[in-house]
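Data availability (excerpt). The following record was deposited with the supplementary files.
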Amino acid sequence: INGIDLYYEIHGSGPAVLMFAGGALRDLTVRGGEAEVGAGVRVDGGDAALERVTITGNRCLSAGNVCAGAGLAVLGGSATLSSVTVAANEGAVNQSGRVVGLGVYVNGAGLVANSSTVSDNVLYLPDDAEVPDAFGLGIALAAGATATLQGVDVLRNSIDTVSTLAGAGVYVDASTLDMSQGWIAGNYGYCRQGNGGGLLVYAGSATLTNVVVVQNRVSCSATATGGGAAVDAGVLSGSNLVLAGNVAEATTAEGGALHLAGGGAVALVNSVLYANTASSLGASGGAASGTGTLSLSYADVYANAPSASLYGSIEVDGSTVLEVDPLFVDTDGTAPGEWDLHLSPGSPLVDAGDPAVLDADGSRSDVGVFGGPEGSW
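Predicted structure:
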């Protein structure tokens, strides 16, 4: 597509839509594309805009050994998404290879998205397939890509069996992510070794503001680290972040909420690590650090299992970090995204945040995802 606006519904083989010099897609559904890269929509240049578009039912070629962006691939220029759904696209490989950005793949390009969803994208393997590696089942950013996501939810993206899993929800490789007011929830993968059930930042940087990372799982036969998030040689900054109900499960597992390695650095403020689990005996259900460092202030660390909440090279401001029940409104729901993480009346996290930060109503900030100046969402 070269600068043309399209409407209604598109079916196609190969990339269903190829955009190479800008243009816009509005009010339509894209389905039925089949390609190794960008089966649904592929942006190869220019400034592309997608508004009220659903990208679904596209799949990678079953005969290929690479699957990148079965829903959307941005390989040049930039893409701006508004009220876009990238859901139920399928990955497929039949040789040992790589799956990168099963839902959305951005390589050396720009992505801006608001009020959008990347969900239920799934990798299937033929019976005779060798086991591939997978990087970012929901969204993958690579090679200097930049992404600004506001009101974007990354939900229930999954894979059954891979060798190495990196970032079941979101994978940031030598790229930059800025995400606010969104959910990374219910993403999971089964693997030999895995890192980052919700998010993995590898040699890149991520800033998360008022983001929920909940009920993600990395389940492996050998090692699993960072059920909620993992940082390897990268940087993660989080404010009003909630990591809750995430699981790292393996013979050797560490960091149910968060794991740091490779000199990674994480700084969290006004944030909560709640009810995360690492399956190994004596492991940290909260945050674990090998060679990385975590700075934690104005935070709550509670009910992580099976052992110590925090372990390793972690700097804690003991005067501001609490170990109390946050008294969320509702954490009984089993489906990802069902939890109500508003604070109940009487919660010890009300007005317990950084006094230099104010809530939208002008009061001292609350700890949790609905605190701070961007907490009204």
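Summary of structural features: The chain has a mean pLDDT of 90.
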